[in-house]
Amino acid sequence: MTLAAVLCCAMTTTVFTACGSDDDAGGNTQQPDNTPAYAEMTFTFWGTQDMLDIADMTVTYNDGTGDKTETVTTVDWVKTVRAALPVSFKFERKVTLKEGVTLSDDQTYSYINAFTYDCWVRTANRTTLSFYTNEGPSKPKPSNQKGSKVNEFITSGRLNKTHTYDFDKDGKCPQLDIPE
Fold first, then answer.
1. How many CB atoms lie within 10 A of CB 168?
2. Residue 88 to residues 9, 43, 61, 169: CA-CA distances in angstroms?
3. 156, containing H or E segment
4. Do 40 and 60 touch, CB atoms closer than 8 A?
């Protein structure tokens, strides 16, 4: 009878061991949370010292909590914004000729009409799910024009720029064409 009891115990142990899960080995079976939680964007409007000297420039931006306006006081304007998804970020630069400034055709003025951005879509624990940039290897080279041409660019609004980026709840943004 003892041999029968030992064999019964051995067969029972084999059956229960075979039915166990291999996932239990590490003790942590929880998968990481890859749910998009927020978007973060660093945006730069490039400029020149001539632009600061001859023009008043403001940037109105929306960081997901409403519009804010800043006067541009440095050659390059840089701002990082971060907000929970879904969110819409907007960056709008306005350039106007400073009061009392007259541009001369005897002089050339430099300007840059360019911008760059870096954008991340991240989880709540800051894991990056998507990254997109339009940044080149260095600051764009300025253009140089005579005073009448620069005056035309400023008064016609050609140096004014608006860029909007709409992120849905999944972190997709058609303006950036972030891959899936």
1. 13
2. 65, 14, 10, 11
3. helix 147-156
4. no
Distance CA 143, CA 104 (A): 16
Are residues 119 and 165 in contact, defined by beta-carbon separation less than 8 angstroms? yes
Residue pair 67/60 in contact (Cβ under 8 Å)? The answer is yes
Sort residue 142 into left (φ over 0), alpha (ψ -120 to 50) or beta.
beta
State how beta strands 108-111 and 77-84 pair. Answer: unpaired
Q: Rounded mean pLDDT of the chain? A: 86
Contact 44, 112 (CB under 8 A): no
Sign of CA dihedral 71, 73, 78, 82: negative
**Going by DSSP bridges, is the β-strand pair 108-111/115-122 parallel, antiparallel, or unpaired?**
unpaired
Global confidence as pTM: 0.77
pLDDT digit string, tens, across residues 14-29: 544 455 555 555 566 6
